[in-house]
Write a sequence for this structure.
């Protein structure tokens, strides 16, 4: 197994688990079914700890152990949950998150800062009297009996057993004792690298007294072993006996199928073995039944082949059968564990697939065209079916990238809670439309601007409690996050029920800052939009949340960069709503196709302001200075012909596409204007990643490649050139 | 050493010294007769100074044999060495004999 990729998976999984933990912690207070939530939180911590052990991430293991102990006491009901505890657990969650991120950067042990923080939290945890092992040692009690008397609800998620212990199965060779070795010494050694949770010594192999050789070893052991050591370490314990003994080690949370393998491979009778496994606590009763049931169906399929050989022997023949059985079993509990049915796929693979689908669409369009020209009716018919199918495939592939926005929204629960506590405000977060789907890359990129909007609403939007009461509103403010689809784009709303924007103050400020002149007459909407201007902040007091100069202008710039828009809606005394409108996917854009000589280029349509003709007079002058007079305004421009070093003579009439980005305008001089079309963006290969001015490529209907112009980059390029030219002149 | 001391209602046996691979063969030979005793058999383990897996295996054999004959085998007065081995191998409940907890074994397990 590649440890590196496994570690990746671990980190990704931990992040998810931590997110879930946070979510559950935040909801715990309002939840009816606390037990279920506590169990989920406990499981999350437990899994993080357990897996960390596999990678030898001792810091995480140690710290999480304390957290887990506290959770365990809570789960047992020996302590009540309260706000203080929630706060502490949230802090612990954050610390675990820090540690995981630290590990993600390739460190194997925590930094000193982490240690100090961790020790502090551990102290706090210990104040609640945890840290001691509460109930580890019920090992020798026949657990099977206990199981029968008080049925425990078992979970069989993803075919794994609910058990964090290793299972070790030992069958020693007969000559072990004669060779001067004693199984007890192995067990003692095991005890030194972990904790033998339970052990069953098997007497089955001891023959009747007269046939028994007292110097031969007949003993076998089934051991449930809890340890943070890795498999190698455990295996090494049996280094000297591996040759003539059978040592089988199952890691924690092995698949049930592995246990079936184990049961079948061991010499003892299946039922008895199963019983032993249950007694060891390695399997629960339910899990055993499941295993035996699978085995049963296996047996039926295999027509009574000798038991124990099914899997061990020809691995090839039996594996599909086993898979089939497991599949059948997993269908049964499909409804139980729906969330476990998603498949984690590398985003790159998905991108690759989408790319391929793009190619497929193009080539099928080409083929369909050929079919049409051939005039063969049957061929045309079959191609039209093909085209339809390909389009369906394309649509559903694009859907693969769609994720629900809910998880992004849920992240704000914590933000709202923390910030409102800090500001002494009481704020309730109401989330609607969490199931609205949008492209994963959009989700990732929208999260920062959204965070800013949420903070802004909490800080500036919602008034302090006393002000609210004076205004006759409930003391607790409400912050709403809402998302919905609207004509090919997604709309995300952040609204508060605060005081609304103070237009007069905004206008004053804007005049003060020189953003508008005093005699300009502006509509209300225009005044409100002034807050998106660079260098605008109305907060009279600068808190550490907002008002640090990076304001709404950054939000707007980020959103515009994603080809989205942001607008706001405000009612004095009733609140403000920010409405962010984003394209559903970044993979498709509306483009404006232009031509230079024989090549085509695509400019994102929403950045195109207008197109004007570059008349000869201008062109003649412009040869020298690279800017034109656009209705009295200076418009710098770039000759695409020069930029991309296209050979040949420019045509008599050139055109200028006026593009705008971030308040700057620039012109792109091209030969022809070819019109609008919707296009799938294909990323450029790695070697082109440093090429300036191009953000991707697309394939046109006729199979030719068109480059997509990176307007922000070009605009910046133009302004830099201008600046340099100005300096050269000076 | 394995010696028996037949009593009226039961057969009482003592094992003293070590129960290891070195004397396992002789122990087994001495034991065989007692195992077929018709009365209930009680083995006193108080004098066992050392026991290894061979020794444990012998005791298990004794138990199995007796159980098969539907006759009782009671182990008594486990010495510290025996208790330690039983604990380690998870055999205390397997033999199901009353065990006196010593300080060293600290009542971790119930018998």
């Amino acid at each position: 197994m590649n440890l590196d990729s496994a570690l990746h998976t671990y980190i990704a999984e931990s992040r998810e688990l931590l997110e879930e933990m946070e979510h559950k912690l935040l909801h715990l207070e309002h939840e009816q079914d606390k037990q279920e939530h506590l169990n989920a939180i406990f499981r999350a911590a437990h899994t993080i700890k357990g897996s960390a052990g596999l990678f030898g991430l001792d810091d995480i293991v140690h710290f999480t152990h304390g957290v887990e102990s506290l959770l365990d006491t809570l789960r047992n009901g020996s302590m009540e949950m309260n706000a203080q505890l929630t706060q502490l657990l949230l802090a612990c969650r954050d610390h675990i998150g820090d540690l995981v991120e630290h590990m993600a950067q390739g460190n194997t042990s925590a930094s000193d800062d982490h240690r100090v923080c961790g020790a502090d939290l551990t102290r706090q945890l210990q104040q609640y009297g945890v840290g001691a092992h509460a109930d580890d040692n019920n090992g020798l009690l026949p657990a099977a009996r206990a199981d029968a008397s008080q049925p425990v609800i078992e979970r069989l998620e993803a075919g794994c057993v609910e058990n964090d212990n290793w299972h070790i199965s030992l069958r020693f060779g007969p000559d072990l004792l004669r060779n001067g070795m004693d199984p007890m010494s192995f067990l003692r050694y095991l005890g030194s690298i972990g904790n033998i949770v339970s052990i069953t010594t098997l007497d089955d192999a001891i023959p009747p007294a007269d046939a028994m050789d007292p110097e031969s070893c007949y003993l076998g052991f089934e051991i449930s072993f809890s340890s943070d050591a890795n498999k190698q370490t455990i295996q090494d314990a049996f280094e000297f006996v591996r040759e003539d003994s059978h040592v089988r080690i199952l890691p924690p949370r092995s698949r049930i199928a592995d246990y079936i393998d184990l049961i079948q491979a061991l010499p003892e009778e299946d039922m008895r073995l199963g019983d032993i496994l249950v007694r060891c606590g390695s399997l629960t009763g339910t899990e055993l039944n499941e295993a035996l049931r699978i085995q049963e169906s296996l047996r039926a399929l295999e027509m009574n082949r000798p038991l124990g050989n099914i899997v061990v022997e020809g691995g090839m023949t039996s594996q599909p059968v086993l898979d089939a059985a497991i599949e059948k079993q997993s269908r049964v509990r499909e409804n139980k564990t729906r969330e476990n049915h998603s498949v984690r796929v590398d985003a790159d693979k998905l991108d690759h697939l989408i790319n391929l689908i793009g190619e497929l669409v193009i080539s099928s369009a080409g083929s369909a065209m050929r079919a049409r020209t051939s005039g063969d009716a049957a061929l045309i018919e079959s191609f039209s079916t093909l085209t339809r199918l390909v389009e369906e495939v394309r649509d559903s592939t694009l859907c693969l990238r769609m994720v629900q926005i809910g998880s992004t929204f849920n992240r704000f629960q914590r933000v709202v809670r923390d910030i409102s506590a800090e500001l002494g405000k009481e704020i309730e977060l109401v989330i609607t439309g969490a199931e609205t789907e949008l492209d994963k890359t959009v989700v990732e990129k929208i999260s920062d601007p959204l965070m800013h909007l949420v903070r802004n609403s909490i800080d500036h939007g919602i008034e302090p409690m006393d002000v609210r009461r004076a205004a006759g509103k409930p003391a607790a403010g409400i912050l709403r996050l809402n998302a919905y689809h609207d004509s090919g784009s997604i709309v995300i709303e952040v609204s508060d029920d605060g005081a609304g924007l103070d237009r007069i103050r905004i206008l004053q400020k804007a005049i003060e800052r020189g953003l508008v002149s005093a005699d300009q007459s502006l509509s209300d909407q225009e005044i409100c939009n002034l807050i998106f201007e660079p260098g605008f902040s109305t907060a009279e007091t600068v808190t550490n949340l907002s008002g640090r100069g990076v304001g709404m202008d950054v939000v707007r710039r980020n959103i515009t960069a994603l080809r989205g828009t942001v607008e706001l809606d405000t009612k004095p005394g009733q609140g403000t709503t920010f409405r962010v409108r984003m394209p559903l996917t970044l993979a498709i854009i509306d483009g404006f196709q232009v031509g230079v000589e024989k090549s085509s280029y695509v400019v994102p349509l929403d950045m195109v302001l207008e197109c004007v003709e570059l008349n000869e007079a201008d062109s003649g002058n412009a040869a020298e200075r690279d800017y034109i007079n656009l209705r009295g305004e200076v418009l710098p421009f770039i000759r695409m012909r020069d930029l991309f070093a296209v050979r040949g003579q420019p045509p008599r009439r050139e055109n200028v596409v006026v593009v705008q980005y971030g308040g700057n305008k620039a012109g792109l001089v091209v030969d022809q204007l070819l019109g609008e079309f919707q296009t799938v963006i294909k990323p450029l290969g790695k070697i082109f990643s440093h090429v300036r001015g191009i953000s991707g490529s697309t394939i046109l209907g006729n199979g030719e490649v068109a480059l997509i112009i990176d307007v922000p980059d070009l605009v910046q390029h133009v302004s830099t050139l201008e600046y340099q030219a100005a300096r050269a002149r000076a | 050493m394995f010696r028996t001391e037949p009593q009226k209602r039961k057969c009482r046996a003592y094992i003293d010294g070590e129960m290891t691979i070195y004397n396992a063969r002789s122990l087994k030979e001495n034991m065989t007769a007692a195992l077929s005793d018709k009365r209930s058999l009680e083995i006193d383990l108080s004098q066992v100074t050392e026991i290894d897996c061979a020794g444990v295996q012998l005791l298990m054999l004794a138990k199995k044999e007796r159980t098969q004959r539907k006759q009782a085998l009671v182990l008594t007065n486990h010495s510290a060495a025996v208790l330690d081995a039983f604990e380690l191998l998870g055999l205390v409940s397997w033999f199901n004999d009353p065990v006196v907890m010593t300080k060293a074994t600290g009542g971790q397990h119930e018998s």
Observations:
- The interface with chain B takes residues 137, 139-142, 177-178, 180, 182-184, 187-188, 191, 198-201, 203, 206, 208-210, 212, 214-215, 217-219, 221 of chain A (CB under 8 Å).
